[in-house]
Amino acid sequence: YFFYGGLKSVSTRYYTTEDKDLVADYLADKLAGYGYTVTFDAFNSGSTACRNIVATKTGTTYPDEYVVVGGHYDSISPNPTSQAPGAEDNGSGTASVMEIARIAAGRDFERTVQFVLFDSEEQGLYGSQHFVSEAVTAGRNIIAAITMDMVSYYDSHYAVRIEGETPWEWLMAIMESNTDLHTDIGNQKDYNSWGSDHVPFQQAGIPAFLAIDYDYGSYPGYHQTTDTWSQIAASAHIGTQITIASAATLAEVAGLQSDLSPVDDLPAHGPLEMVAFPNPFNPQVTIAFAADRDLTGEVVVFDLTGRRVAVLARGTFSKGLNQIKWDGRDLNGRAVSSGKYVCRLQAGDHLSSVKLNLVR
Hints:
There is one protein chain. The protein is an alpha+beta fold and about 350 residues long. The protein is built from 7 helices and 17 strands. The chain has helices spanning about 20-35, 85-105, 125-140, 170-180, 200-205, 230, 235-255, and strands at about 1-5, 5-10, 35-45, 50-55, 60-70, 110-120, 140-150, 160-165, 185-190, 210-215, 275, 285-290, 295-305, 310-315, 320-325, 340-345, 350-360. The strands form 4 sheets. An 8-stranded mixed β-sheet has the order 3-4-6-5-7-10-8-9, with helices on both faces. Helix 4 links the parallel strand 8 (about 160-165) and strand 9. Helix 2 (about 85-105) crosses helix 7 (about 235-255) and helix 4 (about 170-180) packs across helix 7. The longest helix has 18 residues, at about 85-105. The termini are far apart. Residues about 260-270 have low confidence and may be disordered.
């Protein structure tokens, strides 16, 4: 459900449906409301008229150099014309693009930034192919494309895959660095580049990568009528982390100019800061945090690939100082190897982490 000239609801975003057209109008209106110049990039997918949504902010120093942030907004299922909710694929990537656009709206960049929501990806990347073809024909100099597809699910790996090709290692490395610096998720660069909207950019010689959750291949709702919010609600916070890393990558590549100002919509309660001591440690580390109220959640240790290693605590954490110990053992009680790990607390609207260094 959403408000757009009244309360609306859609059950599919399949490329031939009126529901998808309504969603396109809604997204375009939201982007225009953020202050962007918004256009529809029209094309045909077979005999069906389709539309990419393009929101543009002109660069202050190099307006003829473009950085694209994109993802597809259409969906598919075995019963696509009536029920293709597409929460993970690719409502999650669409939400990431929209949120980065919202945060970027009040800031200036040296290069021109375009936020693009592609249509008809599920039919064969038709929307991104058309956009890239038009850009190449027009001589637009796209220096980088950041695309997102399926970013809000994890099972055994709390991590992002950065999918690209060797010639664009520099761009993938920026995303890798920002994931390490600004998030608590693991990451892995993947050079088997296929199947989503980054591919047409790469085929045209444009640096591009796809951010996708590590466990997308095991997602049970993939291209099913069951790809709903309930399937990803418990893991959707990984999408926030991938969005943060992607936003930081945009800022670096496009040349963020404005001073960082406080972002709205922060949780009502203060942030939790986790500390660990001793760190490096052997054989045991204490993780401590102070809560401003009683919380319910869990404290989990992950390795740097995002694989869940140990659950240290689950349940209620009391207001005040909380201390939890880890003896360097995994879920099966086996001693883990030396290396770096991430301890993460999730409790309601609180999310905090600290990196641990085990030295045997």
